[in-house]
Amino acid sequence: SLSSQDSDFPLMEQLIFFHDHALFILVMITVLVGYLMFVLFFNNYVNRFLLHGQLIEMIWTILPAIILLFIGLPSLRLLYLLDEINEPSVTLKSIGHQWYWSYEHSDFNNIEFDSYMIPTNGLATDGFRLLDVDNRVVLPMNSQIRILVTAADVIHSWTVPALGVKVDGTPGRLNQTNFFIYRPGLFYGQCSEICGANHSFMPIVIWSVPVNYFIWRIFSD
């Protein structure tokens, strides 16, 4: 795909909008500079009395500053929104290993499991190669979710593009972020840190379900 994945998190939608906004400004600048360079190739402007032009110098100093404000202010707004941790309904802890993920539901007792990639010869006919796992992470939709990420051996990175989440798992350190899933479905991700030979074989699958089904699933297991 040439564009981002369909978002399932309001702030991921904002990130996509900001990307398009910044890209539009970059395209306009590129077209303008390209046009000026093209014109200069075929024209030779000479003015032996021109020593300096204060007006044009003011324009090409002030205009880039204004453009940077149009990029910087939305970027800062998004940065603060992404950094804010709301009161979570569910906390999930993810631990990176070489080369699989293990999970703990911190709010419930004795809910721990490992999540391994399903090998190609074990996939169902509708499975995704190198992306499906044997134990999916079940999370409730329309709930504020906190994810705690760490690692047991080397640096990993817990990444799910549709949720706008990318958190490094560092041994001896606990990193956290939050997200909010507003529709049901399966969302795929992978470790995005080069963590060794099998780095590409530790995928992540989030299964978003209604809250009542999530509660039934948790307590029935």
From TrEMBL:
Gene3D superfamilies: 1.10.287.90, Cupredoxins - blue copper proteins (2.60.40.420). It is found in: Mitochondrion inner membrane. Its main location: mitochondrion. GO terms for molecular function: copper ion binding; cytochrome-c oxidase activity. Its cofactor is Cu cation. Residues 1-86 form the Cytochrome oxidase subunit II transmembrane region profile domain. It is a multi-pass membrane protein. The chain crosses the membrane at residues 22-46, 58-82. Belongs to the cytochrome c oxidase subunit 2 family. This is Cytochrome c oxidase subunit 2. It comes from Drosophila takahashii. The gene is COII.
